[in-house]
Design goal:
Blueprint (H helix, E strand, L loop, with lengths): L6 H24 L9 E3 L2 H8 L3 E5 L2 E4 L12 E3 L6 H35 L2
Antiparallel strand pairs: 1-4, 2-3
Helix pairs in contact: 1-3
């Protein structure tokens, strides 16, 4: 029996995480000049996956598979106060990382969709 593939769910969760991170970065940049404001950060996506039990698991040498599945529900993304001031250069780097995360999600979903459509058209 073939295990179900949760690629779309994983890409969706990653896009949601990137959205939350982008909102945190935007808030940090908007409040950079506010007296007493301290920067916030979103926990890394790998940590969210590990806590949700959907991290990468090695099943055989040379092979990796996603452990767990979509039945656990969407993970929550922790936002933590760093306690420090906003450093605009770091925030702009984080904004670029969030942008690349969205681009990666779109590329993964597009490629996976093309693969599924090709298999449906070929009758496999």
């Amino acid at each position: 029996m073939v295990d179900p593939v949760y690629m779309f769910t994983l890409a969706g969760q990653h896009a949601e995480w990137a959205s939350v991170r982008q909102a945190a970065v935007t808030g940090n940049i908007a409040n950079a000049g506010t007296s007493g404001y301290t920067a916030v950060e979103v926990e890394p996506f790998a940590k969210v996956l590990a806590e949700a039990g959907t991290g990468m698991a090695r099943t055989q040498p040379g092979h990796f598979a996603i452990g767990g599945g979509a039945e656990g529900g969407a993970p929550s993304f922790g936002i933590e106060d760093t306690g420090g001031p906003v450093a605009l250069d770091r925030e702009l780097i984080k904004a670029g990382e969030a942008n690349r995360a969205f681009a990666l999600d779109v590329a993964i979903v597009s490629a996976f969709h093309r693969m599924l459509m090709a298999s449906v058209r070929s009758g496999v």
